[in-house]
Amino acid sequence: MKVVFGDSLDLGIALAALINETVSKDEIGKWAVRVIDDMDDPPEYIYTMLDLEGYHGRGLRYDIGFAPTTGLESEDEFQYLREVAVRRGFQDRSFLGGKKLTNLSSERKQFIDGLLYENFKFIVDDLPPL
After folding, report:
1. Are residues 52 and 25 in contact, defined by beta-carbon separation less than 8 angstroms?
2. pLDDT on residue 91
3. 36 class by beta-carbon count within 10 Å (0-12 exposed, 13-18 middle, 19+ buried)
4. Which of 98, 45, 44, 96 is nearest to 67 (CA)?
5. Please, which contacts does 104-111 make with residues 24 or more away whose CB atoms are closer than 8 Å?
6. Which of 23, 40, 44, 51 gives 17 a disulfide partner, CB atoms 3.0 to 4.6 angstroms apart?
């Protein structure tokens, strides 16, 4: 599936997933390569995403020049990304800050899971439960 940047949603979910440690810097780099390969004239900021070794939580929006749309509508949805990070083994359960597990509607969960699959090719439902 081609990555599409018409409304910055793919970039937004990629950044949200990076910030919430749902995906690794290596996965972001591979995502950026796919974007570059799929676009005739990729925006300059996509090249920033290729080398994130210097990224330590600073605002990538300063490098990119704008804050992209994530498609996420609530803090619970960002918390869901952190839960996925734990399920993927990138963090331990303390990363969730002692909060109870989110209870998203099936529609919102499918939307977020779909964005993660389209952009990073993993299936959330295949991950071990918390």
Report:
1. yes
2. 95
3. middle
4. 45
5. 104/76, 104/77, 104/80, 108/73, 108/77, 109/80, 111/71
6. 23
Token pair belonging to 39 = 């676009």
pLDDT the model gives residue 67? 76
Q: Which amino acid is at 93?
A: R
**Amino acid code (one letter) for 127:** L
Low-confidence ranges of the chain (pLDDT < 50): 1-6
Which residues, at least 6 apart from 86, have a Cβ–Cβ distance to it below 8 Å? 92, 93, 95, 96, 130
pLDDT of residue 117: 96
Burial class (CB in 10 A: 0-12, 13-18, 19+), 56: exposed
